[in-house]
Task: structure prediction
Amino acid sequence: LDACLYYNTSQLDKKIKLTLLYETLCPDCQEFILNTLQRYVWKYGQDFVDFNLIPYGNARRTQLNNTWTIQCQHGPVECALNKLHGCAISKLVYVGKWFPLIVCLEEAAKLKMDPDAAFLLCSKKKKLDQTLSIAIYKCANGVEGDLIQLQMAEITENVKPHPHYFVPWILISDLSTAQLQIYQNGF
Result:
């Protein structure tokens, strides 16, 4: 009983960590982000959920002569968008800033918008500070974005206890189980 009381008080006011493994051009990921995540979890659970998005998905990385190459399931445009998402999350830090931008970028990707045009539109639409917009753009088109993608790869490749089999793939409190995936269609 003491252990239960300790657990209850130690968890008081702590948010549930929700991690989403996804890729930017995957139709199921877009559906999950734009519908389930935005309309329900974000709208009603912001105060209770700590959001963590990992834009890498089913990409594969290979190393040759100390140089990493990443191949994305849906091609080079998806790799560019994954980097853009990773840089936005990294640079904007606060979920209240980056999540609306990610939603806007996913809406644009669903309409098959060019990544640069989508970023320009969404950064204006979400009223991003020009300095931050430039920093995100430089990151997405440079070495920093490559390094962030390698971090996303590392996280994705090391989820436990179950590796991801498909995307979108959710983790709760850093735990990855196949059983959790049934909740994707109705949080």
Remarks:
- The beta strands are 16-22, 49-55, 60-64, 67-71, 160-161, 169-172, 175-176.
- The first strand starts at residue 16 and ends at 22.
- The longest helix spans residues 27-45.
- The CA atoms of residues 27 and 110 lie 8 Å apart.
